[in-house]
Amino acid sequence: MSERVILTYGTFDLFHIGHVRLLERARALGDRLVVGLSTDEFNEAKGKKATYSYQDREEILRSVRFVSDVFPERTWEQKVQDIQRIAADVFVMGDDWAGKFDDLSQYCDVVYLSRTPDISSSIVRNSLRIAAA
């Protein structure tokens, strides 16, 4: 029996419990979890600026026991090629993206997992700003 490969994407900045829970639940859907990690350049194109560099975020993700591999996400358009390249069985995203990637269901299963309430990198970032003020 071949292994079931799960694929997800994200910036994973200011790594927090919501990230841990999402990765754990994604990994529970299969045998391997592969993460497409947004590069600093791609984040900039999306109008985002990560607190930590790509290299630091990659090192953090690689240290998580649920994560089997990490590769750079450079564009929105690369997802189909990534699914085919790693032979992904399931594409997973947080439910804040619900419906946005349904077109990928022609290549693999698409699952949207609920987010952990009351936590996000934006919430952490804002809390740090308030505490520093």
How does the overall form come out from the CA principal axes?
globular
Most strands sheet: 5 strands, parallel
Number of strands: 5
Estimated radius of gyration? 15 Å
Structural class determined from secondary elements: alpha/beta
Strand proportion: 15-25%
Whole-number average pLDDT? 91
Q: Strand order within the widest sheet?
A: 3-2-1-4-5
Helix-strand topology string? EHEHHEHEEH
Distance between the amino and carboxyl termini:
56 Å
Helical content stands at 25-40%
- Put simply, the count of helices is 5
- Detail the poorly predicted runs: none
Q: What are the defining features of this structure?
A:
133 residues; 5-stranded parallel sheet
Mind explaining what this structure looks like?
The protein is α/β, with parallel strands linked by helices. The chain contains five helices and five strands. The chain is 35% helix and 21% strand. The chain has a five-stranded parallel beta sheet. It is globular and about 55 Å long. The mean pLDDT is 91.
List the helices and strands and how they pair.
Elements: E1 5-10, H1 17-27, E2 32-38, H2 40-45, H3 54-62, E3 69-73, H4 79-86, E4 90-94, E5 109-113, H5 121-132
Parallel strand pairs: 1-2, 1-4, 2-3, 4-5
